[in-house]
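Collaborator request, handled under Task 6.
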Amino acid sequence: MNQTVLKTVSPTLALFYRSKGYKAPGGLRYPGGIVYYPRQPDHKDPEYTPSKLFRVERIRPTKNNPWWLKTILKELKIDEANRVTIVKNIPEVNARLWKIKHLIKVTPITFPYGEPTEADINYTILKENGQCVVTKTLEPQASQIDALEKFETDKSKMDSTTIKKDSRYKWNIAFGGGF
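Structure tokens returned to the collaborator:
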């Protein structure tokens, strides 16, 4: 009798004990085991391209933290000497960043004017908000150069020495007709 009861009861008990809570039907499954339950049934994710690089800034000191967190900070080169570094957006690095998330601030790097080439490396600036801007040297246009040469060689132009002489002359003969 005990055998027959166990055979009928054990599968139901196994299902009961193995369940880890109620799971609602539906939902959108994302990589990493995340399930999202949207409010509207016709929900579609917006198009988004993740950034290739992250700007990582250490915002908390490493003091009073375990040695394995300090090791991760040293590997990423954001220990006590350096506060900011740039890392790739890859799963291995993201796993490390997740472990030290309470010590850092992560900002995705964007390129509003296009990605810099190898020749532009000396002219790039990385701002605190994550924008990487290329500032090349500006060259004047040919019309601007011609206008400057025309202005410099103009005979009716008064340069500083002429203005000084004229002012001195007017000062010396104040009542003689200079004004």
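The cover message to the collaborator said: "The first strand starts at residue 28 and ends at 30. Helices lie at 2-18, 67-75, 91-99, 142-152, 160-172. Please let us know whether this matches your experimental observations."
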